[in-house]
Amino acid sequence: LHDVRIEHAKTIRELECDGYAIGGLAVGETHEQMYGVLDEVVPYLPQDRPVYLMGVGTPLNIIEGVYRGVDFFDCVYPSRNGRHGHVYTRYGKLNLFNKKYEKDMRPIEEGCDCPACRSYSRAYIRHLLKAGEMLGMRLCTLHNLYFYNKMMSDIRAAIREGRFEKYRAEMTDSLSSGEDR
Q1: pTM for this structure?
Q2: Most Cβ neighbours (<10 Å): which of 76, 78, 112, 160?
Q3: Sheet of 20-22: strands edge to edge?
């Protein structure tokens, strides 16, 4: 499989496209297997053109993709998970349907400046979700999209400032902590 992908990358780079897409990942293989494919294929693509990783996008996948030379992504996670009450924070993913958020008056994520976090508590959003109110799903999706956009902005800043390695290590630790803060 890797040999075929490498040969394909060598072939399409000769076409001098505006950018290059890598697809067929995140369809059942482990994250480590996906990273292995990226490690082997991306070096064969032109470094002066954008690389697009199709349909991949947990926060850690994005950080690891950027580390391996991927420039942009698309993914349904922020909206699909938001519609199911799952929200992303720098400490991992929370399921606001969980009973432990029933009386939690904190925002989804402390310090987040999205409209959901500025105006609503975890408890209220949970209430909306449990009641089947569309606003609950919309607030979760809004927060997730804001989280992703902020993360991408932070990644770009870390690259510009030459501190991406540090950012990657900190975010990997933080996102993997599973702490509910």
Answers
A1: 0.91
A2: 78
A3: 20-22, 51-53, 72-73
